[in-house]
Design goal:
Length: 82
Protein backbone atom coordinates (compact mmCIF):
# COMPACT_ATOMS: atom_id res chain seq x y z
CA UNK A 1 0.00 0.00 0.00
CA UNK A 2 1.22 3.47 -0.87
CA UNK A 3 0.22 5.59 2.11
CA UNK A 4 0.81 8.89 0.26
CA UNK A 5 -1.62 7.87 -2.47
CA UNK A 6 -4.18 6.72 0.10
CA UNK A 7 -4.07 9.99 2.04
CA UNK A 8 -4.09 12.07 -1.16
CA UNK A 9 -7.31 10.30 -2.23
CA UNK A 10 -8.77 10.71 1.27
CA UNK A 11 -7.95 14.42 1.46
CA UNK A 12 -9.30 15.02 -2.05
CA UNK A 13 -12.60 13.46 -1.00
CA UNK A 14 -12.72 15.55 2.18
CA UNK A 15 -12.06 18.76 0.25
CA UNK A 16 -14.81 17.94 -2.27
CA UNK A 17 -17.28 17.25 0.55
CA UNK A 18 -16.34 20.47 2.35
CA UNK A 19 -16.76 22.52 -0.81
CA UNK A 20 -20.23 21.06 -1.41
CA UNK A 21 -21.17 21.57 2.24
CA UNK A 22 -19.92 25.18 2.29
CA UNK A 23 -21.63 26.01 -1.00
CA UNK A 24 -24.98 24.63 0.14
CA UNK A 25 -24.98 25.86 3.72
CA UNK A 26 -23.26 29.24 3.53
CA UNK A 27 -23.47 30.03 -0.17
CA UNK A 28 -27.13 29.11 -0.77
CA UNK A 29 -28.38 29.76 2.76
CA UNK A 30 -26.67 33.11 3.39
CA UNK A 31 -24.91 34.68 0.41
CA UNK A 32 -27.40 33.87 -2.35
CA UNK A 33 -30.55 33.80 -0.25
CA UNK A 34 -32.13 36.86 -1.89
CA UNK A 35 -31.62 35.54 -5.40
CA UNK A 36 -32.82 32.04 -4.47
CA UNK A 37 -35.90 33.40 -2.71
CA UNK A 38 -37.28 34.31 -6.14
CA UNK A 39 -37.72 30.57 -6.78
CA UNK A 40 -40.42 28.52 -5.03
CA UNK A 41 -39.71 24.97 -3.84
CA UNK A 42 -42.40 22.86 -2.14
CA UNK A 43 -44.32 26.06 -1.37
CA UNK A 44 -41.34 27.81 0.24
CA UNK A 45 -38.81 30.29 -1.06
CA UNK A 46 -35.72 28.33 -2.13
CA UNK A 47 -33.27 30.50 -0.16
CA UNK A 48 -35.30 30.04 3.01
CA UNK A 49 -35.58 26.29 2.32
CA UNK A 50 -31.80 25.91 1.93
CA UNK A 51 -31.16 27.90 5.09
CA UNK A 52 -33.64 25.88 7.14
CA UNK A 53 -33.72 22.37 5.67
CA UNK A 54 -31.84 22.00 2.41
CA UNK A 55 -28.39 22.28 3.92
CA UNK A 56 -29.28 19.60 6.48
CA UNK A 57 -30.41 17.22 3.72
CA UNK A 58 -27.25 17.92 1.74
CA UNK A 59 -25.17 17.24 4.86
CA UNK A 60 -26.90 13.88 5.39
CA UNK A 61 -26.32 12.92 1.75
CA UNK A 62 -22.67 13.93 2.14
CA UNK A 63 -22.27 11.58 5.13
CA UNK A 64 -23.46 8.59 3.09
CA UNK A 65 -21.49 9.71 0.03
CA UNK A 66 -18.31 10.01 2.12
CA UNK A 67 -18.79 6.59 3.71
CA UNK A 68 -19.41 4.97 0.31
CA UNK A 69 -16.44 6.66 -1.36
CA UNK A 70 -14.13 5.88 1.58
CA UNK A 71 -15.08 2.21 1.30
CA UNK A 72 -14.10 2.36 -2.36
CA UNK A 73 -10.82 4.12 -1.55
CA UNK A 74 -10.07 1.57 1.19
CA UNK A 75 -10.69 -1.27 -1.24
CA UNK A 76 -8.57 0.39 -3.92
CA UNK A 77 -5.64 0.69 -1.51
CA UNK A 78 -6.24 -2.74 0.04
CA UNK A 79 -6.97 -1.47 3.56
CA UNK A 80 -10.63 -2.51 3.68
CA UNK A 81 -12.02 -4.69 6.43
CA UNK A 82 -13.32 -7.45 4.15
Amino acid sequence: MNSNSYWRDNLRLIVICLIVWFTCSYGFGVLLVDELNRIQFAGFKLGFWFAQQGSIYVFLVLIFFYAHRMAMIDKKHDVDED
